[in-house]
Design brief:
With about 400 residues, the protein is mostly beta strands. It folds into two domains: about 1-25 and about 235-405, no CATH class; about 60-215, YVTN repeat-like/Quinoprotein amine dehydrogenase (Methylamine Dehydrogenase, Chain H, 7 Propeller). The protein has helices spanning about 205, 340-345, 385-405; strands spanning about 1-10, 15-20, 25-30, 35-40, 45-50, 55-60, 70-75, 80-90, 90-95, 100-110, 115-120, 130, 140-145, 155-160, 165-170, 185-190, 195-200, 210-215, 220-225, 230-235, 240-245, 250-255, 270-275, 290, 300-305, 315-320, 325-335, 355-360, 365-370. The protein has a five-stranded mixed beta sheet with strand order 1-26-25-24-23, with no helix packed on it. It starts with a strand and ends with a helix. The relative contact order is 0.14.
């Protein structure tokens, strides 16, 4: 069951937009200080850098040969600041130096090149993990010390038996009473397994902590560390099913994410899951689940009890008419305090800053920045004269942006 939130809000126009130069898909988006980075699919496989204030492209990195498969913003590896890390089907993980438009560190497995499908970095930035595709009967997890990039420190080959689609180090401490290693890593695979392992364990037979067999190809997974929700793991499958698990990977619920639908004064029907994010407004104590339609619309859903298959779901917001086709990438940028519209001219009636913006990219090669959600007592009216004024401001800004690009 899907219920409309008391503070439901719909947005039909992004704050600003741009597009990739070619007809590439936008595969992933990450936030850097003052900039967004977006990885593109073939034919370019590049990483584009955009100014947050205007979405003007300020740089482009070559990415990886064949395909760039994952993109992260990381801290503490190069000079202590924030930089980009990416993995690719060329068998490498790269740490990028935007000043030279090239990588400053390149981690590879010199003994045999394997396509890398995902990567992540530990909290102390001393361990980088990457998961491979399946070759023969093996799919591997490589672990590098970025200070010694020529070869992996260790390799785990028995965790999964098919393409490794997700790796994610635990960011929050384990729940009280949990016996978890310092560097716990979550992995998921097309073999249907969701696993947690000790990334510091050299003996791979001793590395795996917990394993769950979902019985379907897992496309995404992540940690649930929202303060109000029980700690655990979420996962999504290629068949648009969604599941939650305890920290020890005991099953909590599994459902078709397309089944919570809304009909009535408003209608929402989910076609696919985009991603999940914690700490979203109006759902601060649970996990925000972002879903999409085949027409390119986006909705934010949540469940008050991720462990109950009968708990109702709520729809908090929709963002519509921006994309055409499937939305591939989504970033909830809750650290943006002043967006370009506020810096240049206030569009809100009381001139307060806009924060919590949504950044999306899709198969239409478009990149959009949308107004996010604000606490209920700060929301502007969605009916009446104020939105009309805001619309006129947006139209003026779009025209100014077009003239600037010329």
């Amino acid at each position: 069951m899907l219920v409309e939130s008391a503070h439901f809000r719909t947005t039909e126009r992004p704050l600003c937009s741009t597009r990739l130069e070619s007809q590439s898909y936008v595969l992933s988006i990450v936030s850097l200080p003052g900039q967004y980075a977006a990885s593109a699919s073939a034919p370019t496989n590049s990483i584009a850098i955009f100014d947050k204030a205007t979405l003007r492209r300020v740089d482009s990195l070559p990415g990886h040969d064949v395909a760039t498969t994952s993109l992260h913003a990381v801290q503490g590896i190069v000079g202590g600041g924030t930089t980009l890390m990416s993995s690719g089907r060329d068998g490498s993980v790269k740490i990028w130096d935007p000043r030279s438009r090239s990588h400053s560190i390149k981690m590879t497995n010199s003994s045999a090149t394997r396509a890398l499908l995902c990567c992540d970095v530990s909290n102390d930035a001393n361990t980088i993990a990457a998961g491979t595709d399946m070759q023969g009967d093996d799919a591997l997890i490589f672990y590098w010390d970025p200070r010694k990039p020529a070869a992996p420190l260790r390799t785990h080959s028995s965790t999964h038996s098919d393409d490794i689609t997700t790796l994610a180090f635990a960011r929050a401490p384990p729940p009280p009473g949990a016996d978890a290693p310092r560097n716990t890593i979550l992995s998921a695979s097309s073999d249907g397994l969701v696993s947690t392992s000790n990334a510091d364990e050299d003996d791979e037979d001793e590395a795996v902590c917990h394993v769950a067999n979902w019985g379907c190809s897992v496309s995404q997974a992540g940690w649930i560390d929202t303060p109000g929700a029980a700690a655990g793991v979420w996962a999504a499958s290629d068949m648009e099913t969604f599941s939650t698990w305890s920290h020890e990977l005991d099953p909590r619920q599994s459902l078709d994410i397309r089944s919570p639908v809304l009909h009535g004064r408003r209608t929402w029907v989910t076609d696919y899951l985009i991603t999940c994010a914690p700490h979203v407004p109006h759902a601060p104590d649970t996990l925000g689940v972002f879903t999409g339609s085949n027409e390119g619309d986006i909705a934010l859903l949540s469940s008050a009890d991720l462990g109950s298959p009968t708990a109702p779901w709520h729809i908090h917001a929709t963002w519509t008419t921006g994309h055409v086709g499937v939305v591939r990438a989504l970033l909830w940028d809750h650290q943006v305090l002043l967006l370009f519209l506020v810096l240049r001219r206030p569009f809100m009636t009381d001139a307060r800053p806009q924060n919590n913006v949504l950044v999306t990219g899709g198969e239409d090669a478009k990149l959009h920045v949308w107004p996010g959600l604000v606490p209920a007592d700060d929301e502007m009216e969605v009916d009446g004269a104020a939105p009309r004024k805001r619309s006129l401001e947006l139209e003026e800004l779009e025209q100014e942006g077009k003239r600037a690009r010329r």
